[in-house]
Each structure stands twice: as C-alpha cells, then as structure tokens.
C-alpha cells in the first residue's frame, strides 16, 4: 500500500479512493500516455507525454529542449502526473447524475533527469516494448545522437493514489419512474488494422495481430503443388498480374480491378475483415516457381458450431483445372476437418457460374439449395447463390478421391 498523505487524500467521494500499489501499477501499465503537470516561472504547465513504469519508478519521455526537462536539471522538478482510463459513459435519468466509469492514478513527487546513458537506453527500450512485446528486437535501436536528443525524467512512486468509479446508474429514488433511458455504454481502447508505411513490403508482425483462436489464424499450408500463405498488401502487384483476365472476375463479388492499386484496396478489405474475425485470407503460390497465382479464404467462421466456409477465391486462368486448385482445396479441407475439428464446410457460388458449381461438386460437396436474392453483384443485380456443403462423415471418402485425382494429375504431368 502507498502511504496516504495530505496531497493524496480526497476531499469528497472518498469511497472511490484507493492506495493499493498493485492497482496503481496496473493502471499505469495499461495506459500509454499521461498528463505531466508542473510550474515554470510561476506559470502552470501540462504536457501530454509517454510513460513507462519500471519497478517503483515512473519514467517520462521528453526532448532535451523541452522546458520541464531543462528545469529538472538542477535539483529536480516538482510534478504531478495524471493517468486516466475511461471505461464507460453513465447515462442517468437526470442530467446531474450523468457520469463516467474510470480508473485514474495521480502521482506527486520530484522528478529528476536521467543522466546515465545505460539507464536512458533501458528506458527507451522499455517504452518501445510497451507498445508491443517484441518490438524492441524488431526495430533499430537509437543511435548515440538520438539518445543525446532524448530526455527522460524519473519519478519515484511514493505519493500515489487511485480513484475509480464502476457500476451502473445512481439516480435519485424520485427519478426512477421518469420515462428516460438510463444505463452504461462501455468504452475501451482497441487497436485497429495496422496501416503500413509507404514502401513497406514486410508482413505485419504477429505481435501487432489480434489474438485469435486457431480458426482465425491463416497458418501457412504447404503441398507439393501449391503453398498457402497469409495474404498481405505486399502481394498486390503479383496478384494483379496473375489474375488480369476478365474471365477470372466474371462471377466474383467485386469488379475486376483496373490496376494493382485498386486490387490493394480489395486486399485491404480482406485484411480488415480478418481483423474483425470475419475472414481468414491466404495467398496462393505455385510451389514450383514461388509465383503468386491467386487467393482464397475461410469465411462464415463459427467455432461454436464447428462450421466454416471456403470462398473469396480467385485464381489466375493458367492454373484452372490443374493440380494446384485441387490441392489448395484439399489443404483447406484437411485444416478444417483434421486440425480445427470442423463438422461442416460450406461453399457459395453464383447460380450463373456453372464452371464453379462443377468444380465444387468434383470436390465431393453436396448441393444444398439456392439462396434467392442472396447478394448484390458488382453491377447491382441480385445474385441467387447456390450453397454446397461437406460434412465430417463425408470427408474421409472425399479425401481419398481428391488424393487419387492429385496422383492422376501428377501421372499425366509426368
């Protein structure tokens, strides 16, 4: 526990106060930034800045040219640091009782400038690691010049208080019958889809990807003819070149892209859907040449019902009716049934796309019916969708036949 002092004792709502060390540390560690308050020449100043806690010291990031850092050189700088996490908005029947759920930490003390180069380097590494575990090893460390331009304040955590509110609405009893909606809207900070900088060709690292169940992970799948790898924006140029044929796009859910930039937008949509847990997209590579030749996905992913659909597939025309297409489906089916424990795999295709329907039937799938006016085509006409499925009971026989087809294609190719 932190010792309660005059500066950390609340004058009202004392039931919301805490001095628990672990609770305070948890708030400081979860938050990415803080407000640093101080005075310069008798004038109040508040600066937003990054922070990281190491043990019982809070380190604050700054520039060697900033006023608080300059003031901290001689004897330290009296500061007050505030960190707040907003957890929800509380809507009461009365305006007076509207509130917020939150967790906040206030720390008082004297901050000192960190002058030891090794300590400053450790803090800079800790700040980077706070953004994502593993990031420090996946980025260039600061140079001597950069370290010289970086200032770090160290604030010993001694006078610390936690203030928090949780729970629901606290209306007056006389207001409970008023005809107004009341309740709590939870809020949380969530990471969006990573947006690569211009010229970046490296795939988004795993530590920036949301934690997913195995059903939502595009694990690499390797066969003798095709490799399935996680789809990425860097695949756009090769994928555009491989699929630049109107026949490839004739029955797909989006119009043919006019250039690689437009295909990049389409890939971005797939990756956004993956980030939301709605799709698992792969790029297809020819195992012999390594060339990007198409893409395919899981979608309608339902681990609870142990069901998944295969689709959003487009493949360069030279590879149609080859072992590549057969093996890609075999890899996806084996992953679904044998690794994920699926009991049902689905396919959907445009009722006009007879070629696709025959291809799905050759996999051993069964036609279940037609979903009328199911989706809009790129020309805004309504599409009737043919739905196929394969169940776990049908998979063993279908797998044998698919492997026989692959061996037959290999014999013909040889």
TrEMBL record:
Transmembrane segments: none annotated. Residues 226-393 form the N-acetyltransferase domain. GO terms for molecular function: acyltransferase activity, transferring groups other than amino-acyl groups. It comes from Micromonospora phaseoli. It comes from the Bacteria. This is Nitroimidazol reductase NimA, pyridoxamine 5'-phosphate oxidase superfamily. InterPro entries: Acyl_CoA_acyltransferase, GNAT_dom, Pyridox_Oxase-rel, Split_barrel_FMN-bd.
């Amino acid at each position: 526990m932190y010792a309660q002092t005059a500066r950390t004792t609340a004058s009202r709502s004392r039931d919301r106060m805490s001095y628990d060390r672990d609770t305070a540390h948890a708030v400081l560690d979860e938050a990415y930034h803080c407000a640093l308050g101080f005075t310069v020449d008798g004038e109040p100043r508040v600066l937003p800045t990054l922070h990281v806690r190491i043990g019982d010291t809070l380190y604050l990031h700054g520039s060697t040219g900033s006023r608080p850092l300059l003031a901290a050189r001689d004897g330290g700088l009296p500061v007050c640091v505030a960190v707040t996490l907003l957890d929800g908005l509380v809507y009461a029947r009365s305006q007076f009782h509207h509130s917020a759920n939150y967790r906040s930490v206030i720390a008082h003390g004297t901050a000192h400038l960190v002058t030891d180069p090794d300590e400053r380097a450790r803090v800079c590494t800790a700040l980077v690691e706070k953004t994502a575990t593993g990031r420090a090893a996946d980025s260039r460390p600061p140079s001597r010049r950069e370290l010289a331009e970086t200032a770090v304040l160290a604030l010993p955590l001694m006078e610390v208080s936690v203030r928090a509110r949780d729970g629901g609405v606290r209306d007056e009893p006389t207001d409970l019958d008023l005809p107004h909606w009341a309740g709590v809207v939870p809020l949380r900070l969530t990471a969006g889809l990573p947006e690569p900088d211009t010229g970046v060709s490296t795939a988004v690292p795993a530590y920036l990807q949301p934690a997913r169940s195995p059903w939502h992970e595009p694990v690499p799948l390797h066969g003798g003819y095709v490799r399935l790898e996680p789809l990425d924006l860097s695949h756009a140029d090769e994928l555009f070149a491989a699929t630049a044929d109107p026949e490839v796009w004739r029955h797909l859910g989006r119009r043919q892209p006019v250039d690689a930039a437009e295909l990049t937008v389409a890939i971005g949509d797939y990756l956004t859907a993956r980030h939301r847990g709605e799709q698992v997209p792969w790029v297809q590579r020819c195992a012999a040449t390594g060339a990007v030749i198409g893409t395919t996905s899981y979608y309608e992913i339902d681990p609870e019902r142990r069901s998944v659909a295969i689709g959003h597939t487009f493949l360069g025309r030279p590879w149609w009716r080859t072992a590549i297409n057969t093996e890609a489906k075999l890899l996806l089916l084996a992953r679904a049934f044998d690794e994920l424990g699926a009991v049902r795999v689905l396919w959907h295709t445009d009722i006009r796309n007879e070629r696709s329907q025959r291809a799905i039937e050759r996999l051993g799938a069964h036609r279940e019916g037609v979903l009328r006016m199911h989706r809009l085509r790129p020309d805004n006409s309504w599409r009737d969708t043919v739905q196929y499925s394969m169940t776990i009971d049908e998979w063993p026989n279908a797998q044998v036949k698919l492997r026989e087809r692959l061996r037959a294609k290999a014999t013909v190719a040889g």
